[in-house]
DNA-3-methyladenine glycosylase I
Amino acid sequence: MCTRCLWLDQTKDDYVLYHDKEWGVPVIDDHTLFEFITLESAQAGLSWYTILKKRAAYQLAFAQFDVQKVAAMGEQDVELLMSNAGIIRNEKKIRATINNAMAFIEIQKTYGSFANYQWQFVNYSPIINQINSKADYPAQSEISVAFAKDLKRKGFKFLGPTTVYAHMQACGMVNDHDNQCFRKSQIIEQYKGLDIASILANRG
């Protein structure tokens, strides 16, 4: 039987699948990053599993996370989303998602991609933390504080240091799988030769 992270409720198959296939894997694709940052924003104040269960509904509600389509949403769309029982019907969060899509696009214009902007905060290389107990899991970091402040300056909402740190964990900017988890070493081994800076530069 595989040893997994201490935080994971292994009675939930969908949670286990997310942990085993996605959490902590380096993401350099803007479409996925927009999905992740949107879901993390929706999660603020709630459990991640609450949002994970609603992920498919969010994909349908927000045009499969097509950032251009989300940025173009208007008042009628907000009204429809507020009546959508499949998502968190918090008007401020819904409006923040549309607002964040517009800010996301501006970053793409400035930096070539959101990935290029985001990964600069860790010098284009995942941080590997030493996690031996639940007490070792950071809630935020100096980097997430700086990242969140910069996102706020750029117009983003519902993305404070703790939410941003969760985003960093999810998309592999930090590898916070605990030291006994089978995924920690797998991810390190699989991505140890990944030159994120070069990949993103060549895309430009």
Notes: The longest helix spans residues 91-111. The domain at 13-203 is CATH 1.10.340.30 (Endonuclease III; domain 1). The first strand starts at residue 127 and ends at 128. The chain has a mean pLDDT of 96.
